[in-house]
């Protein structure tokens, strides 16, 4: 694990922090959305975890980010986990749909001396929407299965085109105080997205020594995660998660990944949340 010990850089990373950390976990900016079991009450919390500095990298950083799960008096669900938030205009179980917004971290001030010579990427805001379905088993064990698709775009500010992510999550109670969950996902991206985050321009090549590379779009990654949530008392919950990403396609073939990083990205973290009804 490589973590910067210089105070200015550490503070920048803590402000940028991890992306995708829920109330009980840290996950990163390239990660697919993470969901919590629908039977949980309203929550607000913080998570701390470790992830890679940039997509495809291998040097690591530590960060702290917030999470919120809130059901309005009208029965609409707001979920805000790290840099990703969505608002459900549908039902808590059954069909779900609504707007989504996200913060996509850039690439700058990285430890890798070669990648540091590449073009910097600004942190930017993404917007879009999602549609999904959540099933609650009415039998003895009230497990939940949730699936969905979200579409996000940056409107050409940093990259053109869009990202499409399909996810599926499963949660079940192991005890009245313990929930266990798992999830799978896949993400498709535009060629402009891949060229921004995984491409090496001729100028980049001259500065870094990496071969020039201009990727196309397509399937970018597969994801999977395991998590557990524990209820300490009426108001306090804790949890932990490990989140794995497997870069594929043109993203995985980038020299940023093959020569300076790894296609296997692992994020892990813990969190604490306050709950109310």
Structure overview:
- By secondary structure, the protein is mainly β.
- The chain has a single domain, classed as Porin (Beta Barrel), CATH 2.40.160.40.
- It contains 5 helices and 12 strands.
- Strands 1-2-3-4-5-6-7-8-9-10-11-12 form a 12-stranded antiparallel β-barrel.
- The longest helix is centred in the N-terminal third of the chain and has 10 residues.
- The chain starts with 6 loop residues before the first helix and ends with a strand.
What topology emerges from the helices and strands here?
Blueprint: H1 7-16, E1 42-52, E2 60-71, E3 77-81, E4 84-88, E5 94-104, E6 124-136, E7 144-153, E8 162-175, E9 178-189, H2 191-198, H3 202-208, E10 218-231, E11 236-247, H4 249-252, H5 255-258, E12 264-276
Antiparallel strand pairs: 1-2, 1-12, 2-3, 3-4, 4-5, 5-6, 6-7, 7-8, 8-9, 9-10, 10-11, 11-12
Radius of gyration: 19 Å
What fraction of residues sit in β-strands?
over 45%
CATH topology: Porin
N-to-C CA distance: 40 Å
Oligomer: single chain
**Share of helix among residues?**
10-25%
Protein name: MipA/OmpV family protein
Subcellular location: Cell outer membrane
Pfam families: MipA (PF06629)
Organism: Cupriavidus oxalaticus
């Amino acid at each position: 694990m490589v973590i910067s010990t210089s105070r200015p850089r550490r503070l920048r990373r803590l402000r940028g922090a991890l992306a995708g950390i829920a109330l009980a976990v840290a996950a990163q900016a390239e990660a697919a959305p993470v969901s919590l079991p629908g039977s949980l009450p309203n929550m607000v919390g913080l998570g701390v975890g470790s992830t890679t500095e940039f997509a495809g990298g291998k040097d690591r950083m530590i960060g702290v980010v917030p999470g919120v799960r809130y059901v309005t008096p009208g029965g609409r669900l707001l979920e805000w986990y790290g840099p990703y938030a969505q608002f459900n205009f549908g039902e808590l179980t059954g069909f779900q749909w609504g707007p989504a917004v996200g913060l996509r971290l850039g690439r700058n001030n990285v430890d890798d001396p070669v990648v540091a010579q590449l073009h910097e990427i600004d942190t930017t805001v993404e917007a879009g929407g999602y549609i999904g379905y959540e099933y609650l088993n009415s039998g003895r064990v009230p497990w939940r299965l949730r699936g969905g698709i979200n579409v996000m775009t940056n409107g050409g500010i940093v990259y053109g085109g869009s990202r499409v992510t399909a996810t599926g999550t499963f949660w079940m109670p192991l005890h009245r105080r313990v929930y266990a969950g798992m999830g799978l996902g896949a993400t498709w991206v535009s060629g402009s997205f891949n060229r921004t985050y995984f491409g090496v321009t001729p100028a980049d090549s001259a500065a870094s020594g990496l071969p020039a590379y201009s990727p196309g779009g397509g399937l970018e990654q597969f994801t999977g995660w395991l998590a557990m949530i524990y209820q300490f008392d009426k108001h306090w919950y804790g949890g932990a998660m490990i989140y794995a990403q497997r870069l594929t396609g043109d993203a995985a073939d980038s020299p940023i990944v093959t020569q300076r990083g790894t296609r296997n990205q692992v994020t892990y973290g813990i969190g604490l949340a306050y709950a109310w009804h």
